[in-house]
Structure of Peptidylprolyl isomerase:
Amino acid sequence: MGLAGCSSTPATGSSSAQLTAKSAAPGSLHCAKPPAHPSTAQQEKLPDKSIAAGKTFQATISTTCGPITVQLDGTKAPQAVASFLQLAKGYWDNSPCHRLTTAGIYVLQCGDPTGTGSGTPGYGFGIENAPADNAYPAGTLAMARTQSATGNGGQFFFVYRDSTISPDQYGGYTIFGQVTTGLNVLKDLADEGTSTKTGDGPPKQPISILKITVIQKKA
């Protein structure tokens, strides 16, 4: 999955990892050893966007470095949120976040169970709610995609610092949610840098999604 004109990137059981992972306080990061991740990405069918249209959801993303809570906007990005709801039911369990950028744009990219950056759920969909000014504020949750108008799939990225991300020939990137708690986890992870010692690569401190739980918020 490409992002912002950049090329694609790059055992402990989940239950014990959940017990040892702690919510990081500002300036400190406490991470458990990531579990073994799947070797292949489960194939799914694209869900109907009506599942999420006009609704708001709260998702708690349990990671090896602590929980990250996000609010999902099914009004502005119904297809992306419907996809997230479906894939949250196990597709991302024990999946690593495979790409961190610390120069130019400031994001952590996740959502490929294989950790290679090329895994997909077997479907694609179009761009929704891309910002006209190319601004992605800190806390933004957006879809990563291939260089295609229908290149959204299972990969997404967290923005941990205000970023301007230039669109490619097909447009920008779908914003479908906002981090409500846990932004400090992302910032502290970014402070550790990348394993490649460049501004774009796997995070030096590995982080994996253990599981995701979602509830619908009342109107």
